[in-house]
What we know:
By secondary structure, this protein is of the alpha+beta class.
Amino acid sequence: MTLMPKQQWPMLNRRRILLGAAAVGGFLAVDVGALLFATNVGGVRRLTPQVIVDAFRKTGGNHPGYRVNHAKGVAVSGYFDSNGNGLELSRAAVFEPGRTPVLGRFSFGGSDPQVSDDPALARGLGLVFGFPTDRQWRTALLNLPVFPDNSPEGFYQRMMIGKDPEANKQFLADHPATARALELIKANPPTAGFADSTFRSLMTFYFISGNGVRTPVRWSLVPMQDAQPASPGNDGLFDAMIRQIRVGPLRWRLLLTVGEPQDPVTDATVPWPSDRRTVEAGILTLDTAETERPGNSRDINFDPTVLPDGIEPSEDPMLSARSAVYAASHRLRSRQSQTTPPQVQVDEVSM
Length: 351
């Protein structure tokens, strides 16, 4: 297999991205993979969205109707209250003072929709602000301090190595950026649950102000509550979050971190210095949890390059790759029926 050179992974901007077509119960994502990747040419197989989808299936199993990554999840909804401070950096409508509806999804990394809750697994929070308008902001956040890989090729290679200790040792020797990132992740253990997790964009985006000033920004959601202790059983972290959200809304402060000229914008394995200026843009409130079903966020593709006017992707190659793989995964699962029901059944969680 021949991997595409890093520079061949095309960069996206908002004008090149088509929003999903409105559909009953959700949005159907446009599969932009065909626009982003070369396929088999001259008998040489290249790194395409389908190759990565197949790799997830190989390592985590084939589960029809589910995402190939972050398969286990729960739908949530709520709203974002903007305080207007974000307008300093971006003209996006979401930062105008007022309230914006939000749909979201908590998840665990991996292809297995029935995986046992494990605090060591990466936790995800996908959000779409402004659903179902045409000025949406979609974002896919993780509870990690940095992203483990800085190229699609490295991500794929590390996934295919699996748990082979010698192969991993050699890989990390050949990929020092990933080695440093994994050490940083190890040094920042996860919190007790979803409610007290800080979720980060990790990758850099450009915010465009009303005056046209372009600023590199990373953002994070900082929790305003502790988490209830995990419940016994295979769904302990999800069950604890569901019980907690029934008692009262869960809230996070949206912090926009402003990059300096020397900060990396194309390598999310490198954290920005802790003294960078932040702008608190408002409060995210999640007040409802539902079992995944047609019509809620189960059907949304949380493509991080679906952006409103005022936010643009950086040249980070992982953004283009994530967009294409997300679209390929969405197209695949939207044509399938789930052979097993969602693992977490919200209505069955007792108080």
